[in-house]
Amino acid sequence: VLQTKLAELMNVVNAKANLPDAQVLVGAVGDSYSDQYPLQVGQFESDNRFDEQLRNIILEGGGGGQNMESYALAYYFAAFHTATDAWEKRGKKGYLFTMGDENPWPTVTRAEIEAIFGDTIERDYTVEELISLASERWHIFHLRALDGSPAYATSEVIRKRWAELLGERVINVEDSSLVCETVAGIVHMMENALDADSVVRDI
């Protein structure tokens, strides 16, 4: 669903969030313990050219059977491997959205970082540390997909864990096909200090 729908993200952000000069990077997070490609990322684009990057994402779906995915790899990437004019020239944070229905692994190990990024680090990172580091330059949100596994959608363990990590910036998404509108609505709200009712009306 996301691979199909996200191709329209730029159009929706431009039209609905009123950000004509937005740049968007898309990627995919898997499980570094059971997937061959646990993190796939494109590059920042100012138009729908990232559609090609979406089509090149490899959908594995192997699953490790432990209700955890490597979302923290996205936070590491955002903290240490991104550069934006918005931040470097204007000190303005970007927006980082992860989406899925499982819990994050509690740590990212030195071995994972070396294997995936080629970086040499001195110790493991907790997901809390990586969220804190990425938050220095990014507004972080997690979209909880409730139309995936029914067991995950109703799991109090998963709900509570994300609430501990991101609080009100965990958004329950009942229809994943509305991911573009959801992202655009959140950015619209943040950029224009709007209330939720106004955002729903505008989007």
- Count of separate DSSP helical elements: 11
For the biggest β-sheet, the strand order reads: 4-8-9
The count of strands amounts to 9
**What are the low-pLDDT stretches, counting only 5+ consecutive residues below 50?**
none
Mean pLDDT: 90
Distance between the termini: 20 Å
The secondary-structure element order is HHEEHEHHEEEHEHEHHEHH
Largest sheet, if any? 3 strands, parallel
Hey, roughly how much beta strand do the residues contain? 15-25%
From the alpha-carbon coordinates, what is the Rg to the nearest angstrom? Answer: 16 Å
Shape: globular
Estimate percent helicity: 40-55%
Structural category: alpha/beta
Q: What does this 3D model show about the protein?
A:
The model has no long low-confidence stretch (mean pLDDT 90). This protein is α/β, with parallel strands linked by helices. It has helices spanning 2-5, 9-16, 50-56, 72-80, 85-90, 110-117, 127-134, 150-153, 156-166, 179-192, 196-202; strands spanning 27-29, 39-41, 68-69, 94-100, 103-104, 107-108, 125-126, 138-145, 170-173. It has a three-stranded parallel β-sheet with strand order 4-8-9, sandwiched between helices. A two-stranded antiparallel ribbon has the order 1-2. The chain starts with a helix and ends with a helix. The protein contains eleven helices and nine strands. Helix 2 runs parallel beside helix 10 (179-192), helix 4 (72-80) packs parallel to helix 7 (127-134) and helix 10 (179-192) packs across helix 11.
